[in-house]
Each structure stands twice: as structure tokens, then as C-alpha cells.
Amino acid sequence: MDEDLRNIVLGVAATGVSAFLGWFTRTYAWRRKLRRRQAFFGLPDHSECLLVVNREAGGDGAVHRFDVFALLELAALVKDCGAHAQIVQHDRAHMGFGDRTEFCVGGPGSNRRTQAHLSSLLPGLTMRTEPDPVAERGVIEVGGERYPMDPGAVEFVVLARITAGDGGRPVFLFCGQRAITNQAATRYLARHHERLARTHRGGSFVLLLKVVNSQAYGPDVVELVADVTRAALRAPAAAPAAS
Question: What digits encode the pLDDT tens for the residues 218-238?
Fold first, then answer.
């Protein structure tokens, strides 16, 4: 009887130890994954970040529904990191960068904050915002290449992570030719942030993405066109002065 009792006790103890080790291993792996995610987004526990909201072109301050969807996806990422988000309108974000992580949604035509970031942080990348001619509207130029859009069929969006400022917290830009491409970029970030963190090791990057047939597939079919980091970060050479 004593032998049977001892075997039962040993069996229960072994089961408890195995359960504890399994729980500890899973918890350690989860925490390690969380820390990597927090480091990539610059969002430690209980930190604050900014979601800079653009406006719909011609919408008198309204936010396009696809941009709202993009903000919701970003808010979920922030919550997963254990951080808190503050929503700020693009024309009221009168502050520097680097102290808090910033997610800036929309191109320079609908978001003044994006326009300022492109000018100061990505001098080698431009997006045409003039209403005429229509064919030139939204054209992205970087590295000597031009990327016009075919609305609903082929559209482009810039996804950037830039580390600058004294605080070292990143600025994320979602600079698309249409609102649906902004959402496509946020969804691409949510799906691939682990690979992006490994590839770029926490540094700055600027990716040009192509959104394929959004009129049929929405923001889900996205292809990486090129890593244009070096060209975007480098100011274009000044034109020679006329003699």
C-alpha cells in the first residue's frame, strides 16, 4: 500500500513539474515575443503613442472610412503591446518627433503631418498632390522612378519606419495614393512586422508596396515592389545653376 501511495505521489509530482515547465516555457516565449514587438514599435508597457489622423480629400474634415479601418488596425497593434494611443488631427499635431511613437496615416495631400515628415525625414521621396493634370495626381517619385496609379487596378503606397529625434521612438508613415492603400499598408505591417523587425534590425526602412486590384480584393492583395530606403533618405542632388 505504501509503495502504491508513493508511486501515486511521484506521478502527481511529475505531472505538476511537467505542467509548470510547460507553462513557464510558453510564458517565456510569449514574453520574449511581446518584448520584440514592443521594441519594434517603440511601445513599452503603458507607454503613449500618437495616431495622426488625416482628412478625406474634399470631405471638409471628414475621415475616409478606409482610413478609419486603418486606425482601428493600428489601435489593435498598440493594445497588443500594452500601450495607449492618442488620436490627433493632422493639422493639430504641433510637436516634434522621437519622444513618442507616431503612426501617421495618409498622403501629403490629406495630411499636413505626412507632408512635413516627407520634407524633413524623406527628402528623396515625393508624391504629387496637384489636382491637374489628373494623370499626375498621386504619382510617387523616388530613386529616379515614377509610380503612377491606375485607380482600382494598380495603386502604390509607401510604408516607412523612421527613427529620428532625441527620444529614438519611431515614426511610421502610411503614405498611399488612395485611402484604401493606407489600410493595405497598415494590414501589411500587422501581418509582417516580425519579419520586418528581423530584416531591418530595428532601424529605419522605406518600402514601396503595390496594391493589386483593390476594386475586387480590397486592401488584402499587397506586393512588395522595392526597398527604397537609401533613395528616400538621401536628398536629391541640386540642379546645376543656369549660366
Answer: 999 999 999 999 999 987 765
Q: Give 121's contacts (C-beta < 8 A, 6+ positions apart).
A: 162, 164, 171, 233
- The H or E element containing residue 199 is helix 179-200
Each residue's pLDDT tens digit, 74-102: 999 999 999 999 998 887 777 888 889 99
DSSP strand pairing (101-105 vs 140-142): unpaired
Question: What is the reported pTM?
Answer: 0.84
Say how far apart CA 163 and CA 31 lie, in whole Å: 24
DSSP-derived letter for residue 91 is G
Q: What is the DSSP letter of 111?
A: -
E-only strand ranges, 35-176? 48-53, 84-89, 101-105, 125-127, 140-142, 145-147, 154-163, 170-176
